[in-house]
Amino acid sequence: MEYEKVYVFQPESERPAKRRRVEPQGLQTSWRRRRQVFDRVWSGQQQAIDARLDGINASTVNKVWHFLERAVLDEQPGRIPTGIILTGADGATGPGIAKQVAERIRVGKHRRILLSLSSSSGTNLKALLKTLIVKATSRRTGSSDDEELDDEDDELRNPRSTGPKLLNYDLQLLQDHVREHRTEQVIITFEDTEAFDGDLLSEIIELLGCWQDRIPFACLFNIATSIDFLQQRLSKAAVKALAGQVFDVALSSVEVEQVCEAMFDTDTPLWLGSALMSTMLERQHDYVVSVDSFAAAMKYACMSHFYANALSVFLGLEAECHDIAADHVVAVRQLGSFKTYARRLLDDHQVAVLKEHLESDTALRLLVRDKVAKGRQKLSAMVQTLKVIRLVQQRLPHTPVSSMSSLYVQAMSGKLIGSPLIRALLLTIRKAPSNIVVTLLRDLMAFHTEKHTPTIPDCQLLLTRFEDLIESQKHSTKPLRSEDDSQNTTLRTTVVAQKVELSKQKSALSEQDKKYTELLGILTSGIEDIFASNLVNPTDLIFHEIFVYDLKSPYREVFTPRPRHAIERALATPHDYLDCDCCGSGQGDEHVEATLAATQPATAVLYQLYLESGSLINASDLWQAFQAVLGDGGEEAETMTLFQRALAELRYLGMMKSTRKRVDHVAKVMWQGL
Amino acid sequence: MGGKLLLPNELLLMLSEKWTCRDQQLRQLRALVSYDRIGVVQPKLHVQATTPSTVVVYGPHATGKSRVIEAYLESHVTKYAIVNCRECITGRHLLERTVAAVTASLWIGKSEADRDDAYNGRCENIAALVVHLQKLLKMHEKFVLVFDGVDKQRESPPTLLPALARLGEYVPGLETIMIVQHPPPRFLHQTGVPYIHFPAYTRAQSIHILSRHPPDIFLELPTDVPDYDAEVHAEDKAWLWSRYCAAIWDSLAQNAARDLVSFRAICTKLWRPFVAPILAGDFGTRDFSRLLVAQRRLFQDETVLLDSIIASPTLAPPTATGQDKPSKSSAAHELPYYAKYLLLAAYLASFNPAKTDALYFMKSTERKRRKKGGGTARSGGRLSQKRQVPRHLLGAAAFTLDRVLSILHAILPYDLRGTVDIYTLVATLTSLKLLVRGGGLGAGDALEAGGKWRVGAAVSWEYVQGLARNVDFVFADYVAE
């Protein structure tokens, strides 16, 4: 081989075994299975979420569609039919309704083109028109075209057979295209209307208005702020050219609610805990975040559970539970909830049972399977109970209906039972008049048969008793009043020995009213029982670690990172990241962080000096301070190089810039801790 | 220039019948623009008229310039082309379209085979246009080229107008008509160009023109009145409409909508509400004065003068009332919590001078703050000599990002975790034009250190007050006055 200068490399047929261990060990062995479980679980949920989100704006899409249909039939000369879709700040970024409208166009009977323009399509009129024409002429028309037809069109389009060549921003091209394809409507959607320059938007609208008699345009604007704001920004001629109608899409909070409900409705094996859920909901409420991001956060939570928690393998199909590796069973014995369970068994003197669970893997596997199934049942019963709470709230007058998500958060934290909300609810039921209570009871029963929500035992019997009671007092059309109703008590003022005494006086109640109050008592205690039995604290359930996921930090790290804080911290305490021996003298000591040392990276040193100075920094002073820190050991030229590089890096990070006020100074741009 | 023949006056009469109140302009046109339409009887002309090569037609918006010219050319001239400059994006586009329009008009009446397909030459500049026109019009004695709205041409080169005015000097037989709104003096750099003025319509003229086409009072003729047929209806509506138009002119249009188009728009907008009592049977069709008094509210409400994308709900036909609901609930599309606070902070940063920041936003006790600045600010008790415009009436000042973030931290009731969401929020609000980038160095580059922002035009004092009320923030405490 040595004498050959060039040779053909022929690898051996078998590749050498890789040195790294490919086969997972220990708890990692179940990874593949966990991923399968995740795939199965999430695909179901994703479908449910998608279905909900598509359905939520169905009525708006219908309206927009009808509007467009009508625009084809009766045209207003000189004015462009315009749909203005109020999306709110959250929806302004996404494709929104236009996507669903595009779906309709594909199946609609008229030939239409849907073109979407965003503010990035072009910064001037020419570029915008170019994009528009390119999009229009390269796309198929709405109705399903045959391949044959398309081929013909291609020939027609590219070299214009008649007339001179046209500039690529000439709308004549679009007109020819429309004529050739017999398109009946050209719909232009402005995705982020606000981001467009006002003048540019006015110009293009005016231009489209000019061509309206030759090209049947229709516009859709996505608006995040308000119509008035849009009108302010448009020129008068542009406003005149538009004949608009407003459409409203669902609020982002409603969308979030729908996603939550989709998650509860599907038979999900994994439940998100209250801390995580409330963090996610809070972010959704506080910032401009699209609902897709919320769904993504849910998916991420699911993924982190199944990928990182080996015990989630128990959430798989029941038949697969038998062959779960032994080390997983050992891990189950370390769970906190198992330990409490064991303690309880000991307290109950059921030592034999505990011993079996500790010694026999099979027994424990069975126990895990049963208890996990039971726990999941408990939780879904809890969610059903939340629906009952909402139902009761809806039926009672003057009671605000809590959102499903907020109830869920409270319930998962175990604080719902005994909360003021529940107590107030029960009190209101006690005061409710008979007509309301009867409808409530009927609805409860209907809900029970439809959606299997928990209900009161002997519900039917109670209802008949109520109805009998109402029947018995036919002579009055007034509903029966409860004894606890404050309308039946009057305040009585008496003056005794020059002191005013207030005393409550119950007005006389009929016999029926008293009976009614009695029945109400039964009903209230029944509902209270439902709440007490179903609103469990999830952390009291055994093996809740397996089917409840409540870790906030992965979510926070991934979805709400703090880039600026990270940079500032890295520059302030480089040792934490470098883990070098030279400056790690006082580990864990907070005060050591701020000390300057020559061993630190030059940028970090300069950053410390930067923090200490005011808003204008004299470069020469900075250099001298820097030199003093780095010491006299090095050559000056070398130190200067370090200094200049550090300065350049700080500038690159956007921390300082040169200023025109003083030539030899740099201006401080960023302040710490913002 | 074969037959220097005078046109029969009938044709002109026909035109002026259609375009009323434009007789004088039509006569001027006939004198200035040569006509060669074959097929009309052309009697002998006494005087040999030489036509100017350029004519400027000017007048305010909606005075019938383009339509009259078009109608005149259609009936009098064989070969002409009209270029609508509003549709041309660039100067080059105008030139290309001119060539295309001339070619197209020359093709009219020719068979497919005769058409000069090879004519695909580029037309980059005015010199090229001259060459093209010379080539195209070689065989033609007379051609009229109209540039409609050429003063509104986008991206036009400065020499465009004078050059177009001189086209006739290079291309024999070409006559150029330029339609402009308000020509500045000597804008063609040429003397002796004849102008035709289209003045705005007077009150009588406007009402006269409008009353030629009265709209229906009854969409369906009433069945309960036996003698009321279409003829009576036509009489009634003509009678009522002209009076109604006069009333509209006197009350609303003479001040705010003097041009014909907006006058007509207002008249048609208010017509259905105006005749609604007649439809309801409260008034007869000839009870104009009583109707006017009953409906005086319509003539007082000036909101109809404002253009709006959405048809205003009060005037919309009753069938459309169902659509009012969404506009009400649209108020529910609110900004998220931190977005509101960020806008408040941005407003403060824009309208408070930076030097007072320490006064208003320092996290010190109330007493200290007052001691520091509150006393000195208005200690004199006398008004200062310099009269100052209130700050919120002035334009927004630019601020750096860190200043607004500091103010945000200061005004928030509790600590904020500075995550990436805040920066996303800044970007989102910028794309919504509630915050605007601008001011300072490197305004165009988002990555430039020390870039500056301003609050957008939509964030007014009232808007911010609304936001502050919404989040229970005592805004007045922080505004420097």
TrEMBL record, chain A:
The protein, known as: Origin recognition complex subunit 3
Nucleus found in the keyword field: yes
Annotated Origin recognition complex subunit 3 winged helix C-terminal domain residues: 564-636
Biased composition (Acidic residues): 144-155
GTP-binding among keywords: no
UniProt GO BP: DNA replication initiation
Alphabetical list of InterPro entries matching this protein: ORC3, ORC3_N, ORC_WH_C
Signal sequence coordinates: none
GO CC annotation terms, alphabetical: DNA replication preinitiation complex; nuclear origin of replication recognition complex; nuclear pre-replicative complex
Keywords of the record: DNA replication, DNA-binding, Nucleus
Molecular function per GO: DNA replication origin binding
Region Disordered: start-end pairs: 141-163
Cell location: Nucleus
UniProt organism field: Friedmanniomyces endolithicus
Source superkingdom: Eukaryota
Family the entry assigns: Belongs to the ORC3 family.
Domain spans labelled Origin recognition complex subunit 3 N-terminal: 8-314
Automatic annotation (TrEMBL), chain B:
Keywords for this protein: ATP-binding, DNA replication, Nucleotide-binding, Nucleus
GO terms, molecular function: DNA replication origin binding
Domain (ORC5 lid) ranges: 241-300
GO terms for cellular component: nuclear origin of replication recognition complex
Residue ranges occupied by any Origin recognition complex subunit 5 C-terminal domain in the UniProt entry: 335-478
GO biological process, one term: DNA replication initiation
Domain of life: Eukaryota
Cell compartments where the protein resides: Nucleus
Residue ranges occupied by any Orc1-like AAA ATPase domain in the UniProt entry: 18-170
Broad class of the protein's primary localization: nucleus
UniProt cross-references to InterPro entries, sorted A to Z: AAA_16, ORC5, ORC5_C, ORC5_lid, P-loop_NTPase
UniProt record similarity statement: Belongs to the ORC5 family.
Protein name (record): Orc1-like AAA ATPase domain-containing protein
